[in-house]
Amino acid sequence: MTAPTYPHVDVRDGSLSGARAWFARKGLSRPREGRLLAGVCASFARRYDVNLLVARLCGIASVLVLTPLVYVAAWILMPKDATVAPVAASSA
């Protein structure tokens, strides 16, 4: 099975087509058969000659580990809301 090629797209192009061309050039394309969900883990397993179950377990582990890390990073990097002075009640 061969990966689809994108002959007229520069792999350094910043668009979606450029990204897809880069992945295709590296041999990473999602298979049509034997995939679960979108086939990303199956693609990595096929490209790097890894057992499919091992690739799926690594994918699940990376999601479980990286998601909290991204949340903590966003928590640290995001500034708090600016404090606002209380509005004095106007006597009309």
Q: What's the quick description here?
A:
This protein has 92 residues and is an all-alpha fold. 48% of the residues lie in helices and 0% in strands.
Globally, the shape reads elongated
Total strands: the figure is: 0
Oligomer: single chain
What is the radius of gyration? 23 Å
**Sheet with the most strands, sense and barrel status:** none
Spans of at least 5 consecutive residues with low confidence: none
What does this structure look like?
- With 92 residues, the chain is mostly helical.
- The protein contains 3 helices and no strands.
- It has a domain at 32-66.
- The protein is 48% helix and 0% strand.
- Helix 2 (40-47) crosses helix 3 (52-77).
- The longest helix has 26 residues, at 52-77.
- The radius of gyration is 23 Å and the shape is elongated.
- The model has no long low-confidence stretch (mean pLDDT 80).
Descriptive labels:
3 helices; 48% helix; mainly alpha; 92 residues; elongated
SSE order and pairing:
Elements: H1 16-25, H2 40-47, H3 52-77
Helix pairs in contact: 2-3
